[in-house]
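for the record, two folds in this file. i put them one after another cuz i was lazy. first one right below, seq on top, structure tokens after. the second one comes after a little note so u can tell where it starts
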Amino acid sequence: ELGWELYHKRQDTAALYAAIMEAGQEFGIDNFGAYAMNSLRLEKAFRGWGAE
């Protein structure tokens, strides 16, 4: 699975978030939390660096 880190100016955060959410509507994009991401990581057997 692909992932990205986005570097941007702080003042552009709200506009960037809105653009990503709008572009992802057709794919069912939604917000998720850190606990959900950690659960998915465990299911895939990805290590948590510094924790395991």
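(here's the note) second protein begins now
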Amino acid sequence: MLTLHCTKTLITSIGLKSLLPPPELIDESLLGGWYANLFSTGRDDALIFVNEKTHFNFIVTKIRRAHIDAIGQILINGIKYALEQEKFSQPEIASALTGYDAILLAKTVNKGTLASMSSLSNLYQRRIEHTGGIGSADIKEIVIDVNSRPDSSLNGDSPIERLRELVNEKKPDLS
């Protein structure tokens, strides 16, 4: 089961009154939980997703409030696309998505991941504005660049390095 920790802003946008803290479940999925927030990129809204274990992140732009109801599918599709752009193989992507057959929406609980997500949102906003706005920004390249930057909360590793280590630890035995 995938736990998607949503900020208050996102909870309100989804139309939920509130969410409970996640139950004490043993997360058996490879990547673990994700954090999500809604932020503005000029006239458009964007969703940012940040992995709790690796801080691997990506954004989905030009989000309309009506789309947010399908946030679970947006996340799964976003993970697949981001991993394809990072040149992960199809077996690696399948392995990374193992355990994501059901999605639990929950409140945010990890202040460190929440702080990283806030910093990343600001970075994405600045990068998009610097490149002339959402219409002219190369979102794919921005996401790849952001994930390749060293992260002090990861002891200087980049999110993509941590993600590759995690996925490669659990490679399926194809023999």
